[in-house]
Every structure is written in structure tokens, then in C-alpha cells.
Automatic annotation (TrEMBL):
TM regions (residue ranges): 122-143, 155-175, 187-206, 212-236
Organism classification: Bacteria, Bacillati, Bacillota, Bacilli, Lactobacillales
Pfam families named in the record: DUF1129 (PF06570)
Keywords: Membrane, Transmembrane, Transmembrane helix
Keyword Membrane: yes
Origin species: Lactobacillus equicursoris
Keyword Signal annotated: no
Name this polypeptide is given: DUF1129 domain-containing protein
Length: 255
């Protein structure tokens, strides 16, 4: 093989990539010329549901100032982007990185940050969710054993107090890494490492040395903590307009 042929082979992949980018750009420009009704027909069922929920929330958030026609005008520029993204296997939620409940305020007030502390909001609700979960499990565990648990098997208050915010932080960080679209292999390795770290922390907290301060609470008190955590969780989710936890896609709540 001559040097010229080798150079052509090395250049071709770059040309192919540039050609695909140009085609994608041309397709996007073409999509922008299509009427709204035609664009909506091209949406996947999941993206149609996203757009429908977004339209409804825009009207509700507009408090009488936004009607269906105005909501359509706000959504119209987004449709071509959504279709271009779905051709790559990306949903509207993945494209914008937000559920309709959080995207709508940003569209209505583009010059304002509608969710300035979103990371801390998510950290708070996930920490509360884990606090409720761990407390409930600890309470049920002690109840089923009828107070016959050995000290080594009891779940101390410090274990729950440390694990709840730790898992809340990891859940928040996981969400950030997912949005950053890092490689799945790297994300899996990161998850495994953190699960191992959490296991080590539990082992240390349950060690005989820590049992002096990491005492267990009565089952009834654990259950009370779980109930309070759930009540705060529901209150803050409504306050922050967050309708999903732990990365699960959910239908938007009816207002």
C-alpha cells in the first residue's frame, strides 16, 4: 500500500464524520421549516407525552396569561430539536435534562434561574427518602425480632444518620454524571466503588468500638422518624416541584 493510499484511508473516517454532521444539520434545518402538526406526528409516543405535559403545565403556570395557542408558540421551537435528538435515541427529557415541571418555568422566565439550587434540593429529598427507608427497615427489623436482637445485629442511630445523607449525596452525584453522559462502564465502576465504600462505613459503624455511641433506638422511635421523614419529603417535593426520585421517569402530576 502506497503512502498516498494510507493517507486517504486516514482521512476518510474524518470526512465521513463531517459528512454525517452536515447531514444532521441539514435535516435539522429542514425540520424547522415543517408545520407544528407535522412535527408532532413525527414524535415518539414518549416524546408526545412529554410535549403534552409541557403544554398543560405552561398553561397552568401561566395563571390565566398563557392559553393553548400561546403554549404552542412556546413549544414550537423545541420540536425540531426533539425530533433531531430522538433520531439518535435520545428522549426529550434527556435532551433538556429536566422533566416538564421544571422546564416550563424556565421557558416562561428564560432570564431567571427557575431552579438555582436544584442540586441541593435533590440532595435534600433523596436524603430524606433514604432516612425514611432506613428508619422504617430498622423499626420493622426490631419489631419482628421482639427485642431479642444481639447488640452486634442492632441498627444504631449513627448508622442511619450517616448513611442517609451519604446515599443522598451519591444519588445526586449519580444524576449529575448521568446528565454529563459519561461512559456506562465508568459509571458502573463508580457505582461499585461507592457501594463498597458504603459497606466499609457500615462495618466501621457497627464495630464494637463504635457501639458505645452508635446505640440503637426503640422500634417505635424509628417508625416515628420514618413517618416524619416521609411527611417532610412530600412537603419539599411539592415545594420544589420535583416529581421524581432515583432517576425514574414518571408521569407528571395533575395540577
Amino acid at each position: 500500500m502506497t503512502a498516498r493510499e494510507k493517507n486517504q484511508l486516514s482521512i476518510n473516517p474524518k470526512q465521513s464524520k463531517l459528512r454525517k454532521l452536515a447531514q444532521a444539520e441539514d435535516n435539522y434545518e429542514y425540520l424547522k421549516t415543517l408545520p407544528t402538526a407535522e412535527l408532532i406526528k413525527q414524535l415518539t409516543k414518549k416524546n408526545q407525552e412529554y410535549v403534552t405535559n409541557l403544554r398543560r403545565i405552561l398553561i397552568n403556570e401561566g395563571k390565566g396569561e398563557i392559553d393553548n395557542e400561546q403554549a404552542e408558540l412556546i413549544i414550537e421551537p423545541l420540536l425540531a430539536k426533539i425530533i433531531a435528538a430522538q433520531s439518535k435515541g435520545e428522549t426529550a427529557k434527556q435532551l433538556f435534562g429536566l422533566p416538564p415541571t421544571q422546564l416550563a418555568p424556565k421557558l416562561l422566565s428564560p432570564d431567571e434561574d427557575a431552579n438555582p439550587t436544584g442540586k441541593w434540593q435533590y440532595f435534600t429529598i433523596t436524603s430524606l427518602a433514604f432516612l425514611a427507608m432506613f428508619s422504617l427497615l430498622a423499626g420493622i427489623y426490631e419489631l419482628t425480632e421482639n427485642g431479642n436482637l444481639s447488640q452486634a445485629k442492632q441498627i444504631g442511630w449513627l448508622t442511619i444518620a450517616v448513611l442517609a445523607p451519604l446515599m443522598g449525596y451519591l444519588a445526586t452525584r449519580y444524576q449529575e454524571l448521568t446528565k454529563a453522559k459519561i461512559k456506562q462502564s465508568h459509571l458502573f465502576l463508580w457505582s461499585v466503588m461507592n457501594l463498597v465504600m458504603a459497606g466499609v462505613i457500615i462495618w466501621l459503624l457497627q464495630s464494637p468500638t463504635m457501639q458505645i455511641v452508635n446505640i440503637y433506638l426503640p422500634a417505635s422511635l424509628y417508625l416515628v422518624i420514618a413517618i416524619v421523614a416521609v411527611a417532610l419529603l412530600i412537603l419539599l417535593m411539592r415545594r420544589f416541584k420535583i416529581d421524581h426520585i432515583f432517576f425514574a421517569d414518571r408521569k407528571v402530576k395533575n395540577s
